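Quick one, T. Sequence first:
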Amino acid sequence: MRRFIIPLLLTLFTLLGYAQEYNKEHVGKIDRTLLTSDPEFKKWFVLGYNEYQPKDSFVVRLRPLLLDKKIVVVMGTWCSDSQLDVPHLINLLDELEFDRTRIDIWGIDRKKTEPANILSKYEIKYVPTIIVFDKDGKEVARIVEKPEVTIEQDLIKQLSGETY
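Structure tokens:
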């Protein structure tokens, strides 16, 4: 029995260490450099970015809909949904040649209490939350936690006025 317990414990500690590796918390403004240079964030960001390929037909439809828009993303660097969808969104925005100065990404803590001004300003309950604003600052689209289909299809539906 002892022969099985030690390998089991070693495996368990290895898995726990691996799980914690992707749970690093960043609170506040996030830029792409942080996501691509921090060793812990880079692992999930680069993997998610590279694995996602938006369909060209959706990119063509979405490009004019995002013209003159601003995007705010509120995420948890510790959150598996954020780790999946934020790299996909950034890949999509790169495909669209979206102006990087018109996207703000904010990291929140696990308790969803900080930064309090961002959470209250954008009425954040779940992460990731992707919000699109028009040139007048009016919210025109919001994806909360997970897209219904894909990020680009959900944005096309909302920005074109289709029933969501």
